[in-house]
Design goal:
Length: 143
């Protein structure tokens, strides 16, 4: 059980870390580039992360769901159910609110800079929600 707890924490916390890094370091670095270079960087990162992140989110949600099932008869069940709900909402919001924007930026839409600013603001909300789910998971595992 301890190994599974650590694996779940690792996968979820590294997901939070990558999302935070994109928002805190990669996007600000891209903003310092000339528009053409900025668009190339954002397009390339959208292509790479667009392939990896759906798998990462799915694995994180699956592991969190298994964790909830394993802790079903413990006091932490409701906390883990809350974390599960947050992860599912993040996935749905990502599909409907963030992926279409990232695709438009990657395609180089005429107003890609404005769209990227909207994506960045929404991504910050997603990061806060991810961090909340991760904190809830850590609380149940540690306490």
């Amino acid at each position: 059980m301890h190994l599974f707890n650590m694996a779940t924490l690792f996968v979820v916390l590294t997901l939070v870390g990558v999302e935070f890094s994109v928002s805190a370091f990669m996007n600000p670095a891209a903003l310092r580039l000339e528009p053409e270079s900025q668009l190339r960087m954002l397009s390339h990162s959208a292509l790479v992360l667009g392939k990896v992140m759906p798998i990462w989110y799915s694995v994180s949600t699956l592991l969190l769901g298994i964790q909830t099932w394993l802790c079903w008869y413990t006091p932490g069940r409701s906390i883990l159910l809350t974390a599960d709900a947050i992860m599912v909402l993040i996935a749905v919001a990502s599909i409907f609110l963030l992926v279409p924007l990232a695709s438009r930026v990657a395609e180089g839409a005429p107003d890609w800079q404005r769209i990227n600013r909207i994506w960045d603001r929404r991504n910050r909300v997603r990061i806060a929600a991810l961090a909340t789910a991760a904190i809830l998971l850590a609380y149940v595992i540690v306490c």
